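Fresh eyes needed here. Kindly weigh in on this sequence plus structure tokens:
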Amino acid sequence: MRKLCSIVCVCILGVGLSVPLFAADTETSIDVSLRWDANTESDLACYKVYKSTVSGEYGAPIATLSKDQTSYMLAVAREITDRINFFTLTACDLSGNESRKSNEVSKLIPAIPAVSTPGMPILTVTSAVAGEILVTWPDVPDGKGGVAKVDIRYGMPPTQWGALPSAGCTGSPCKIPVLLLDVLYEVKGVAYRAGPTGNIFGTITTGVQVRTSGVIDFPPDPPKGIIISKETEEELVIIALVEDCKELIISAIGTTETIHKLTTRCSK
């Protein structure tokens, strides 16, 4: 390889921070981009990339690249503290010879930020209407300065979270209709916020039990004591059972020349 020593000063033009792989609250690595000027030797075969956390101390290369490549991107894992990573590059020829290392560049890899999970909702569960459960809770912090959504699930105890159907609501109040009457149900919930790679959940609540109402609130029955004994197009005969009614009120709307609208009311 001619001028091997003249090309060892491969210039890494810069180490840039690209768009992160993940959003801030789930980011566990940083993309680092290395770039350099191409070598011009006819027997150039490859480039080798080295990485270290100690300046000047490098082990085996982390990547061997083709001779036509003049850039390389790698994901550097973040740790619980800030850490500087160092990078260097060598060129190799067809015979396997390797140049000395290029100039060294470095990049500060910031620590993984603290992850705050959403809080736990406090559920209040009631059953005032037959076949319905109403679940309410005060706002829950989402761990990022906002209000968390809450996934509500329910079933007959004993309950396992993964097997429970979701109520399909994310905010309070949450109504769960079309349930069996006079049956004990258990309700659970978990607060969460949407993350770029999936939802970030808090802690699942303990089950809150409630029995559904077994009485359906039907409309009141019509007054007793009034019987229609005969009804034709010309005649309507109404019989009032005096012992059932204190007063029978009959009112007609119309004139003697029109069909009357007759209204009756039994006062008890």
Observations:
- The two ends are 117 Å apart (CA to CA).
